[in-house]
Amino acid sequence: MVLKVNGMRIDEKLQADIVVAMKDRDEHRLTTLRTIKSALETKTIENREALTDAEETQILMTLIKQLRKYVEVSKKVGKPEMAKKERLEIGMIEAYLPQALGQEEIRKLVHGAIAHLQTDAGGVRPGPRDLGTAMQVAQQWIRAAGLQADRKLVSELVKAELAK
To answer: Which of 103, 80, 86 is nearest to 31 (CA)?
Structure first.
């Protein structure tokens, strides 16, 4: 499966958006888009092969994580305009990520992952001590489906399900 944004592969959409930003003379957007493209190209060169959807998603998530740290630092040092700029960059990057799953969809995946663990354990239902294993399976299922989910929400739902 190839990650697509509005029917285009990420690299195609990114290049098209760079051209639009250049035409619009939107320097902030252009710089952000070039940063994304550079991060993807660097990893492609390191791997010496095309990136998988999971790798592309991971790179984008890493960029977002870094920017969230910068937002916190900007707030602490009293630079709200920098924090606002970085939040805009996060929004630009998120546009290239797969649509995040809703709570009900995550709940269904968690049920399936726990049922899978129960089958593997010979019918013994996993308990709270199996949180790490259940989280791994749930995350693998989400990634395998090429989807995106809030890890904190996944964790909360797995904990709740294992506590039953």
So the answer is: 86
Distances from the Cα of 69 to the Cα of 28, 35, 62, 63, 117, angstroms: 19, 17, 11, 10, 35
| 50 and 75 both lie in a single domain | yes
Phi, psi dihedrals of residue 101, rounded to the nearest 5°: -75, 150
pLDDT at 1: 45
Average pLDDT, 10 consecutive residues per value, the chain (164 residues): 61 92 95 95 93 84 93 93 94 85 86 86 83 89 77 89 86
Domains of the chain: total: 2
Q: Where residue 44 sits, what CATH number does that domain have? A: 1.10.1510.10
Out of 94, 118, 147, a domain closes at 94
